[in-house]
Amino acid sequence: RNLELPEHLKAYKGVWVFIEHDRGVVHPVSWELLGEGRKLADTLGVSLAGVVMGGADEALDAIAKEAYTFGAESCYIVRDPVLKGYRNEPFTKGMTDLVNKYQPEIVLLGATTMGRDLAGSVATTLSTGLTADCTELRIDPATRALAATRPTFGGSLLCTIMTLAYRPQMATVRPRVMQMPDADPSRSGVIVEDRLAMIETDIVTKLLDFIADENNNKVNLAYADIIVSGGKGMKSPDNFKLVWELARVLGAEVGATRPVVQSGWVDAERQVGQTGKTVRPKLYIAAGISGAIQHRVGMEGADVIVAINTDANAPIFDFAHHGIVGNAMQVLPVLTETFREHIAMRSRKAA
Amino acid sequence: MHIVVCIKQVPDSAQIRVHPVTNTIMRQGVPAIVNPYDLFALEEALRLKDQFGGKVTMLCMGPPQAEDALKKCISFGADDAVLVTDRAFAGADTLATSYALAAAVRQISREQKVDIVFTGKQTIDGDTAQVGPGIAKRLGLQLLTYVSRIAEVDIENDRITVERRAEGGVQVLRTAMPCLITMLEGTNEMRFAPLENMIHAARYPVRKWSKEAAGIEDITKIGLKGSPTVVSKVFGPTPRAEKALMQSVEDASPRDVTLNVIQKIFTQHPTLERDILAKATV
Ligand SMILES: Cc1cc2nc3c(=O)[nH]c(=O)nc-3n(C[C@H](O)[C@H](O)[C@H](O)COP(=O)(O)OP(=O)(O)OC[C@H]3O[C@@H](n4cnc5c(N)ncnc54)[C@H](O)[C@@H]3O)c2cc1C
Ligand SMILES: Cc1cc2nc3c(=O)[nH]c(=O)nc-3n(C[C@H](O)[C@H](O)[C@H](O)COP(=O)(O)OP(=O)(O)OC[C@H]3O[C@@H](n4cnc5c(N)ncnc54)[C@H](O)[C@@H]3O)c2cc1C
């Protein structure tokens, strides 16, 4: 297999991030990727650009402006009525045409239902490599290629994947895996507008409707600041109420392990881990959770992890910051009460 | 209606262990199963067949042992099965995999026109969710990923309406068949295989296609050669530098232990205390 970059692909320069937005809201993973893309572009000494595609009446320029504050130096905007509401066909066309024309060396997308749908078809159309669900992106000093690391076999191992002889190098990254960069409102950039060579009658698939989730804004586990999670060690759905109670006192979201979800104690959208959500809260309290690798990969990015477990040798204590060895049914109510008192005391002082 | 369902045989990851010293996968004795996500695709295909009649053809690329996975699907009620198996396919990444599978689907559709190709959402080993979109692009099929429900099939006009899971909601999409659907998990429940089906499946002559039989035109596009991605390193997760600060309710009262923890985290992370005070409901 030839691993040398062919001459005609050496002209590919620059790092691109696909800016995902839907019904007026940019997915935060796009800003997280700009933060990461900025580092890659600086290492390579190339520029960082955002790609914004959308309908004629959408505020694409405002999105581009915001992209500059997160580190993009320019934005490619493709504005066309057929790009209102995500559909694979026109977005694939828009993205592949842009890539062929401007030739970026790296293209990053969020590993969302939109990003994965688009990345898979763009990479196939361009006949290039695509690395899925990465947790770390670096530049390999020897080859100047993107070294994209992803967990494999449910997180028990990590592997680093490179696309050496093809361009662009593509990767998707899950929300919350990368840190949100600080916005710098003083930054600006340039807009490059492009047209889409496609009209509605060319497009076979029609978007008939969008049914927004009822509880859309209620559970946003990935972006919660504080999460109280329970595992199978909580023993019963009744005991699991102790988890909810602590969460209520802290204004936190409730998370869970996969067996808890499978037992039907909580909804699937609360599952943390490899096959659930990746979270990055400031505080993660884990009660009755063993700390299996598939759970760990979803929450080890938390700033502070407090674990309660009867087993002093539970794997969770290998990566928690504070460990309490004890029965969760006994410790959780006390912890809740102590937090409650502390908060009450501090609120009184502040008042 | 002719439906092709793509399945992958995967190691039962619940039973996979990693060698603690060499960081290699210990595959010995780990049973191989049908990728669990693919069963949702198969069940959906079988339901369409129940409703509209027709035929479900299974397709898998893999080593000769993958025949077992296909037989399992026959026992659930699939009509025919093709195993694309050839040393030349080894080492394929998703781009090379979708090339080979697309060629095989084309070959199958020469026998009988294909209306829908199904795949699972993703596998439990490679876990990329890239093969479905890849096959669709190569065959020029309309792509419908993360489908949570098939709302309507209009056979007369070759039209299909589905619900697709998106961030924050569900898209309702209508498109033309032939199309490729990647089925979301948890959307249906696999039926039981009756005993007579199992006997039929055990004896079923799964068709095995070499790269020639599968209609591969360009052998530089399959296997390792056709794979742009290069796995450069495999390693274990790094342990954290220091272990957790441990306290036990054996040594102190739960009250003292929790007070101690709360004090420590708030001293070390003053902004956390502020956040909690802002949000908390006492
Ligand atoms: C392909 C694959 C994907 C997976 N994806 C995920 C995923 O996304 N998320 C996930 O969480 N898991 C996932 N898993 C499952 C994972 O491997 C573990 O099985 C799971 O995380 C364990 O959940 P648990 O800690 O709740 O339960 P257990 O492993 O049963 O652990 C219970 C813990 O509670 C402790 N305990 C018992 N009684 C008490 C008590 N009274 N007080 C305090 N502690 C007590 C025990 O010591 C033990 O450590 C996946 C597995 C596979 C194979
Ligand atoms: C640890 C690991 C990491 C990898 N990372 C990458 C990566 O980042 N990028 C990359 O390009 N390749 C990667 N690969 C290679 C990739 O797994 C293989 O190409 C594999 O053949 C298909 O990809 P998948 O398992 O991710 O399938 P997915 O794309 O997740 O599968 C989606 C669906 O496609 C169908 N399907 C998939 N494979 C087959 C098959 N062989 N036969 C029939 N139907 C099938 C199934 O219906 C399945 O549900 C990785 C492999 C491993 C083991």
TrEMBL record, chain B:
Pfam families the record matches: ETF
Keywords: Electron transport, Transport
Domain Electron transfer flavoprotein alpha/beta-subunit N-terminal: 22-218
Gene3D superfamilies to which the protein is assigned, alphabetical: HUPs
UniProt-listed InterPro entries: ET-Flavoprotein_bsu_CS (IPR000049), ETF_a/b_N (IPR014730), ETF_b (IPR012255), ETF_beta_N (IPR033948), Rossmann-like_a/b/a_fold (IPR014729)
SMART domains in the cross-refs: ETF (SM00893)
Lineage top rank: taxon: Bacteria
Gene Ontology MF term list: electron transfer activity
Family: Belongs to the ETF beta-subunit/FixA family.
Protein name: Protein FixA
Species the sequence originates in: Zoogloea oleivorans
